[in-house]
Amino acid sequence: MGAGPGKDSNVGGNSNLGGNSNLGGNSNLGGNSNLGGNSNLGGNSNLGGTVGASCSPAPVCGGSVSGTWGVTSSCLTVSGKLDLSLLGLGCSSAPITGSYEVSGSITFASARYSDNTSTHGIERFHLQPACLTVSGVVVKCEQLGRLFEVLFAPADCAGDASGGCDCTATIAQNGGLGLVTPDHSSAGYYSTSAGTLTLDDSAEYGFCAAQDTLSLRPASKSPTLTGNIVFQRMGG
To answer: How confident is the prediction for the chain on average, in pLDDT?
Structure first.
């Protein structure tokens, strides 16, 4: 997933995602301020990243991304396998589910980008009993949580009836444009080719820029990330 110079990650955040909290509705995870002053882009929609984009992959048509774009909606679903190879556990992957919401804005100009987006969400994954070793030493579920900060955020892990662990991590990342990684960036270089937007030669998105709307489809395989981020052009 994405790589680039520097980090600007706030892990853990103040946002409670899950439980009785709804992702979307009238709640903006980007704070109370709307991008672009008091004006709302797209009618009554604030640039707070409210859920409204289809979770099905958007069409890819290419176009010009030059300019500043504010998030109007997002729908990103996490599934598949979480790569654990960096952690030294007794297993190399774990099944994962979750969802992200993106808010904020991004600017593309002169082959460079400035990413002022935030990604919030929740991830849930299960560790089999065989996973519960670190460099060969047996550990308890409660001791594993901080390890996952290497990947995205600390996790809360508790034992289950199978002898494994059920873990939950709350995501609050600045920058990274919807791709939650330890090496995300908030600024760097970008290129486009055949409907693919590439940031810093690593993070890739299928995209379609038509008139004043930009749709991005993040590409991630471990875990799998499905869905779209929809933007509206800012500043005319």
So the answer is: 81
Q: Tell me the C-alpha distance between 63 and 108, whole Å.
A: 13
Q: How many CB atoms lie within 10 A of CB 77?
A: 15
| Residue found under tokens 């704070």 | 31
| Contacts with 25 (C-beta within 8 Å, 6 or more apart), sequence order | 50
List of residues 6+ apart from 189 with CB closer than 8 A: 111, 112, 113, 199, 200, 201
Backbone angles phi, psi at 61, to 5 degrees: -130, -5
Query: pTM of the entire structure?
Result: 0.75
235: confidence class by pLDDT, cuts 50, 70, 90: confident
- Do the bridges between strand 203-210 and strand 81-83 make them parallel or antiparallel, or are there none, so unpaired? unpaired
Q: Cα angle at 224 between 1 and 9, to 5 degrees? A: 45
Burial of 221 from C-beta contacts in 10 A (0-12 / 13-18 / 19+):
exposed
State the pLDDT confidence band at 183, using cuts at 50, 70 and 90: confident
Higher per-residue pLDDT: 59 or 36:
59
- Cα–Cα distance between 169 and 157 in angstroms, integer? 9
- State yes or no: cis peptide before 59, omega within 30 of 0: no
